[in-house]
Amino acid sequence: MRPLPIRMRLTAWYFLVLCLAFGAFSFLAFFEVRGSIHSAVDEGLRDRAADIRELLERQWPAERVKRELTEGSSVRGEDDILQIAETRGEWSYSSASFLRFGLQLVSSATPGEKFRFSTVYSKRMPLRLLTGQLRVADKAYDIQIAAPMDDFYDAVNRFRLVLLFSVPVLVLVASAGGYWLSRKAVAPVGEIAQAAQSISEHELSRRLPILHTGDELQSLSETLNEMFARLESAFKRVTQFTADASHELRTPIALMRARTEVALRKQRSEAEYRETLLRINQDLERTSALIENLMTLARADAGSEALQIAATNLNEILVDISEPARLLAEGKALQYDQQLPDTPLHVYGNAPSLRRLFLILIDNAVKYTPREGRISVVLNSSDGAAVTEIRDSGVGISAADLPHIFERFYRADESRSRESGGTGLGLSIAKWIADVHQGEISIVSKVGEGFVFRVQIPLSEDDL
Ligand SMILES: Nc1ncnc2c1ncn2[C@@H]1O[C@H](COP(=O)(O)OP(=O)(O)OP(=O)(O)O)[C@@H](O)[C@H]1O
Ligand SMILES: [Mg+2]
User: Where does 15-98 show beta strands of DSSP type E?
Assistant: First the structure.
């Protein structure tokens, strides 16, 4: 079953809470009013009992007491509902009203001057009845005094009726108000959902309308828009990457096709065929390197390349790569030197990836430094990090290119880089490797003054 819409659920809760709150309030109010009427009436009955006690204390003969009681009753202008009886049966007195209501004298169940109050109905008249015993001198008197409650109960019943009719109406009106409010509050969510639905992969540049309400809904639409912006840029990056990758792959394939076509156009000598095959082989090598790089980045994007991380000796890594680095440098008659600290520095890392990172940087240094230049690799530690600097005496790059060189397929000087066989992926891979190691690559470069790449990787705890 589909759950109810939020506005309905809110209203249902609201209704329930209101019912409980108003119900409890009515219940309390009703019993409080009735209770305070009872205690006021009881107080009056108690006063009357005190009057009678005073009368009995005068020790008058029974006849005089009875007369006083009758007169006292009419003097007060109200008809006492009163009955009093000497417990040993010497005399008793019942007022006219008491007889009229046909009440029975009950002997007080609690001797001593403790009064009991109860509500009784006699001839359809509700009466509040005091029952008790008065002890005067050595005599005891059972006494009952009653007060009619019809007027009070009428008022209490009217109050109950008002509650019974007004509370449901109030609850309904308040719930309707609650429904209206929650509808109003939730309506923008529907609008946002509708707008979000209309944004497809082809219209990622569209944005949700921003509700300037200054509340959670505004922040929701802003957050969603930020998410769309991130999606759009990620989507653009992927599309761009695919386009660039296919372009890069097309170029060497077109080149190889051209070479074979030219070679096949007429009969050639063996040496010529050999030359063509050699060139094609070089193209193939470059193409497989490119495919290898593309796959590395694709795996990095997919997050599927989980590197094995262990405490790794950076000195060893740099000694390892010094041989291929020297070979590369010698190919261009460059001077290559390495300075390592006496104590080995350890980082948490993946040795093959770190080797690759440094080789990418050394490869660049070699590629972009003119013949007979100089390349040096220096390892140091500072601020809890192993700092490796790869310096060259090359041409450096312009400030305009600097922010972009870590972008995929970016080459500062297109013609120079192509001639050196670069595809513009090396630094993207280097940056990814540094990121995986919680490290950082920064650049110090001035045009004509060469390049310094600084790679910082946090030291492992043992070396801190
Ligand atoms: N040491 C350097 N000196 C001068 N320019 C550099 C240096 N290193 C990188 N660059 C510039 O940055 C660009 C990007 O470098 P990156 O290593 O990503 O690509 P590439 O070397 O052109 O190709 P790849 O490394 O994929 O074969 C280079 O094309 C080059 O213009
Ligand atoms: Mg490179």
Answer: 81-86, 92-94
pLDDT in tens, 314-367: 999 999 999 999 999 999 999 999 999 999 999 999 999 999 999 999 999 999
CA 392 to ligand 2 center in whole angstroms: 14
Nearest to 255 by CA among 287, 231, 300: 287
Question: Is pLDDT at 418 greater than 80 in this prediction?
Answer: no
What is the distance between the alpha carbons of residues 118 and 41, in angstroms, rounded to a whole number? Answer: 11
- CA nearest to 21, candidates 153, 167, 200: 167
What pTM value is reported for the model? Answer: 0.60
Strands 81-86 and 139-148: antiparallel
Ligand nearest to the CA of 427: 1
Query: What letter would DSSP give residue 459?
Result: B
Structure tokens of 51?
């009057």
List, chain by chain if needed, residues with CB within 6 Å of any ligand 1 atom. Answer: 364-365, 367-368, 392, 394, 396-397, 405, 410-413, 417, 422-428, 451
Encode pLDDT of 203-237 as tens digits. Answer: 888 888 887 878 888 888 899 899 999 999 888 88
Compute the residue count for the chain: 464
Q: Residue 267 burial by CB count (10 A; 0-12/13-18/19+): exposed, middle or buried?
A: exposed
Give me the DSSP letters along 359-407.
HHHHHHHHHTS-TT-EEEEEEEEETTEEEEEEEE-S----TTTGGGTTS
Question: Residue 388: left if φ>0, alpha if ψ -120 to 50, beta else—which one?
Answer: beta
The ligand 1 atom at the shortest distance from the C-alpha of residue 421 is 27
**Per-residue pLDDT tens digits for 7-64:** 899 999 999 999 999 999 999 999 999 999 999 999 999 999 998 898 888 888 888 8
Helix residue spans in 265-367 (DSSP H): 270-302, 314-331, 351-367
Nearest to 362 by CA among 426, 306, 412: 426
